[in-house]
Q: What sequence folds into this?
């Protein structure tokens, strides 16, 4: 008889789990708590061979995957180049990958506005519990419900994501809006600016509706900036005075917070990046949290993607890690979730630790390097950022 999996969370991790299980002959149902189809606000995602192979394995069509970049370039605050590393790579967007996977899941199997709060299980089956009081029973439950996972909260109540002391500001500028000098110096490159205690990463991605034509693309601006707990609390407080613990919806970020960020950008960043920022759609920020689960299963329940472990975005492995979880899960789900867990826990930990190390290099204090000219780890940062962690 066909086995049935329930998946909590319909973002990229949930879709990867669903498509891999479908390929392995399972019947799947995804339950996503958000009421409307998800959107990544155009956020950029760096691809790796591992990710591309996983997309092919679940049946995705990789045509027009993204923008090809050739070089990684580190900049001085004065706009000159500090270092260049040839590193051909395709950079794409969260929306593009989400669309590629979403179309592989039948509409009848993707349920919006359904919030899973926990589970019960017997030797024969597992039941997902919904916030409206209903339950659904299946052979397998996958917690792909992100870093604040309700499934992990029940499975591993002691594992709590920890704020790491900095946020990432993200923004997108339309290619056609950039001055020609900024465009020619920065736009085609995977760019870095690595002053003491901060970091910029930037790269081109497709325009609206995956438009890859020159002039129609966008530049993805990513700026890691320290925010001690007290400052973060202020940044997470909206105009009405309401504090949003963990993260704040972008439209609710106060104008004063945006203005303060723009002023710090002017004082810290090369003029070309300040231009990109000033011509971007409303920037938004995400606080960075760490967590890692020592096991990824409990009976018939498995964790995958960010629910199991977060690798900070420095390694650009969030999507790739979720893809590898999914393929491994599909391989072992019918026989041994323990083998799944034993395989994926150490692999996730490697990505998690590499990301933490990159984060710690970024936070190193060095008065000589306020202009980004002399980070002692620059070569390693350029080589290991958004690179596959084996
Ligand atoms: C909008 C968005 C933008 C992103 N941008 C980037 C980026 O630029 N770079 C990068 O590396 N990574 C980014 N990520 C993270 C990256 O996509 C993830 O690391 C990777 O996709 C794996 O995520 P995930 O599906 O495991 O978790 P998430 O992306 O966090 O998704 C979890 C999903 O589960 C749903 N959910 C949560 N709780 C419940 C519940 N109780 N019941 C039902 N559903 C629930 C959430 O609504 C969400 O859709 C982004 C994620 C999102 C959602």
A:
């Amino acid at each position: 008889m066909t086995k049935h999996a329930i998946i909590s969370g319909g973002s990229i991790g949930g879709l990867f789990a669903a498509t891999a299980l479908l390929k392995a002959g399972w019947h799947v149902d995804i339950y996503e708590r958000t009421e409307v189809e998800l959107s990544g606000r155009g956020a950029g995602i760096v691809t790796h061979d591992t990710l591309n192979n996983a997309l092919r394995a679940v049946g995705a069509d990789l045509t027009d995957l993204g923008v090809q970049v050739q070089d990684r370039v580190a900049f001085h605050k004065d706009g000159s180049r500090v270092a260049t590393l040839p590193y051909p790579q395709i950079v794409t967007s969260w929306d593009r990958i989400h669309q590629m996977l979403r179309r592989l899941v039948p509409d009848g199997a993707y349920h919006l506005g359904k919030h899973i709060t926990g589970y019960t299980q017997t030797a024969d089956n597992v039941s997902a519990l919904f916030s409206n009081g209903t339950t659904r029973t299946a052979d397998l439950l996958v917690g792909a419900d992100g870093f604040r996972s309700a499934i992990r909260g029940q499975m591993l109540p002691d594992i709590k994501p920890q704020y790491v002391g900095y946020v990432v500001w993200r923004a997108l500028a339309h290619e056609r809006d950039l001055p020609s000098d900024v465009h020619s110096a920065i736009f085609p490159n995977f760019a870095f600016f690595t002053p003491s205690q901060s970091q910029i990463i930037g790269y081109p991605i497709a325009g609206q509706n995956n438009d890859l034509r020159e002039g129609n693309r966008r530049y993805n601006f990513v700026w890691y900036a320290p925010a001690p707990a007290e400052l973060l609390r202020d940044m997470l407080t909206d105009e009405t005075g309401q504090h949003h613990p963990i993260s704040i919806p972008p439209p609710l970020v106060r104008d004063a917070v945006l203005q303060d960020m723009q002023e710090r950008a002017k004082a810290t960043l090369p003029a070309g990046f300040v231009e990109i920022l000033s011509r971007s759609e409303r920037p938004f920020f995400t606080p960075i949290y760490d967590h890692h689960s020592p096991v990824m299963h409990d009976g018939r329940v498995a964790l995958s993607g960010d629910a199991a472990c977060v690798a900070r975005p420095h390694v650009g492995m969030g999507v790739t890690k979720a893809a590898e979880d999914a393929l491994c899960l599909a391989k072992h789900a019918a026989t041994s979730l323990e083998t799944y867990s034993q395989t994926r826990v150490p692999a996730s930990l490697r990505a998690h630790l590499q990301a933490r190390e990159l984060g710690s290099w970024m936070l190193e204090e060095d008065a000589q390097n306020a202009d980004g000219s002399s980070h002692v780890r620059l070569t390693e940062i350029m080589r290991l950022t958004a690179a596959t962690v084996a």
Remarks:
- The first strand starts at residue 4 and ends at 8.
- Residues 4-60+96-160+292-358 form a domain with the FAD/NAD(P)-binding domain fold (CATH 3.50.50.60).
- Residues 8-14, 31-34, 38, 40, 43-45, 94, 115-116, 144-146, 150, 305-307, 313, 316, 318-319, 322 surround flavin-adenine dinucleotide (CB under 6 Å).
